[in-house]
């Protein structure tokens, strides 16, 4: 089992070597690729180009440009108030997952349509399937409990026929189920992945947003938006928060052990790992991994498990 790595003091930790989003954003190239980004870009006090990361429209425009420039995704968009994830970190999850899958193929990363993955809670943004297909040719099923999210992602797929042929969307009608009702008999998946709801309640989400705004120096004493990266209720919180959601996923995964090679899920709070690892031991997982990731000074990780 691996442990989350830490950067050297004062030095940002690197992204995965295959991640296309190394270093600072190339705003001139991004604006050439996506002119709609231009109104949101301005010099910082140090003279560098950047955007206001507390502006949801600016973040959405940046994501659209990043996906177009680095991954060839056209006309990506999401409705207002849906989760707009940071692209470099999401790409890192996929590259580290590719390394994990390569362990079973003699160090060779499996590519192409025969490698099928399930994205649990794909959302309106569909970032994991889009990048996973563009980078590795993987095919995906994306599930979500929100029809509006699937409809929005469907519009992006309609604008990208190559992606549409590789990504199937499925509605999860039972908000308490994760794999049941989505995984069909006889289907086989190399892995599942998930960005789980982080917060335990709406109030918890607001407190988290307030902390982010303080860190960005944007507090004014006024009420802040729920999250500068947006997000519907099901994307942001569930009773018990991240730990409860992943524990439920662990319990349910046992029933689908023969259909999935690796179950994986992001874990935002490192303090949740002992609880989740104990849950996996109770379910008799044959192997448990904690795969460390980083984006600058931000440390992240995903939990991976499988059954013999």
UniProtKB/TrEMBL annotation:
Gene3D superfamilies: Vaccinia Virus protein VP39
Catalytic activity: adenosine(1618) in 23S rRNA + S-adenosyl-L-methionine = N(6)-methyladenosine(1618) in 23S rRNA + S-adenosyl-L-homocysteine + H(+)
Pro residues composition-biased segments: 1-15
InterPro entries: METTL16/RlmF, rRNA_lsu_MeTfrase_F, SAM-dependent_MTases_sf
EC number per UniProt: 2.1.1.181
Localization per Swiss-Prot or TrEMBL: Cytoplasm
Keywords, ordered alphabetically: Cytoplasm, Methyltransferase, rRNA processing, S-adenosyl-L-methionine, Transferase
Short name of one Pfam family: Methyltransf_10
KW Acetylation (keyword) present: no
MF annotations from Gene Ontology: 23S rRNA (adenine(1618)-N(6))-methyltransferase activity
Record region (Disordered): 1-24
First-level EC class: transferase
Similarity field: Belongs to the methyltransferase superfamily. METTL16/RlmF family.
Role of this protein: Specifically methylates the adenine in position 1618 of 23S rRNA.
The protein, known as: Ribosomal RNA large subunit methyltransferase F
Taxonomic source organism: Pseudomonas benzopyrenica
Gene: rlmF
């Amino acid at each position: 089992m691996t442990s989350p790595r830490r950067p050297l003091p004062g030095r940002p930790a690197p992204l995965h070597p295959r991640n296309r989003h190394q270093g600072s954003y190339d705003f001139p190239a991004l604006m050439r690729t996506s002119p709609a980004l231009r109104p949101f870009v301005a010099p910082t006090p140090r003279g560098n180009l950047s955007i206001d990361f507390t502006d949801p429209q600016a973040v959405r425009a940046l994501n659209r440009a990043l996906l177009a420039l680095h991954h060839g995704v056209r006309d990506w968009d999401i409705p207002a108030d849906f989760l707009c994830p940071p692209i470099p970190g999401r790409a890192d999850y996929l590259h580290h997952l590719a390394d994990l899958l390569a362990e079973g193929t003699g160090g060779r990363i499996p590519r192409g349509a025969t490698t099928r993955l399930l994205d649990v809670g794909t959302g309106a943004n569909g970032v994991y399937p889009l990048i996973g297909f563009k980078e590795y040719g993987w095919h995906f099923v994306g599930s979500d409990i929100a029809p509006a999210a699937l409809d929005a992602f469907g519009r992006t797929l309609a604008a990208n026929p190559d992606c549409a042929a590789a990504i199937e969307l499925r509605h999860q009608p039972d908000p308490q189920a994760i794999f049941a009702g989505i995984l069909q008999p006889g289907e086989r998946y190399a892995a599942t992945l998930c960005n789980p709801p982080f917060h335990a309640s709406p109030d918890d989400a607001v407190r988290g947003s307030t902390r982010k705004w303080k860190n960005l120096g944007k507090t004014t004493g006024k009420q802040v938006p729920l999250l500068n990266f947006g997000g519907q209720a099901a994307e942001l919180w569930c009773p018990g928060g991240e730990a409860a959601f992943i524990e439920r996923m662990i319990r349910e995964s046992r029933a689908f052990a023969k259909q999935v090679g690796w179950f994986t899920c992001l874990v935002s709070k490192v303090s949740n790992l002992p609880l989740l690892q104990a849950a996996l031991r109770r379910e008799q997982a044959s192997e448990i991994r904690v795969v460390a990731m980083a984006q600058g000074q931000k440390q992240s990780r995903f939990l991976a498990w499988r059954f013999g």
